[in-house]
Amino acid sequence: MANPHHNERPNYMLPEFEEARLFFTVEGKTDQEAAAWLSNVWDFSNTRAIAAWDQQRAAEVKALQEDRERLEQEAERQHLLREQEEEQAKQEERKKYKSKFAPIPDRPLPRETTKPYYTLIGAC
């Protein structure tokens, strides 16, 4: 369906519309009156077509917005699910390898060295 906003009212005084004007000139109207009446009918019809077109476009825009929102929500849900799975995998990893993830205390190195145990045994 073409956009009725771009339609131009035809000139009903042209010879191609003579047959349409004849229906009204039979009742005693002039060609100008018949053309004016046909123009009014065309205006009414085009106004209804414009309203239908606008309503259809509004429905399409609304449907597109709803689809976009639904897709954004689905993407957000997938993102959160992925983050939860990654966090759960990290927790499982920490449970498996506790020593790997043991905290390292933030303190200075000792200044005096300790003697190894085997040196103490040999001294006896």
TrEMBL record:
UniProt-annotated stretches for the region Disordered: 68-115
Composition bias type Basic and acidic residues, residue spans: 68-95
Superkingdom of the source species: Eukaryota
Name of the protein described by the UniProt record: Uncharacterized protein
Organism: Boletus edulis BED1
Phylogenetic placement of the source organism: Eukaryota, Fungi, Dikarya, Basidiomycota, Agaricomycotina
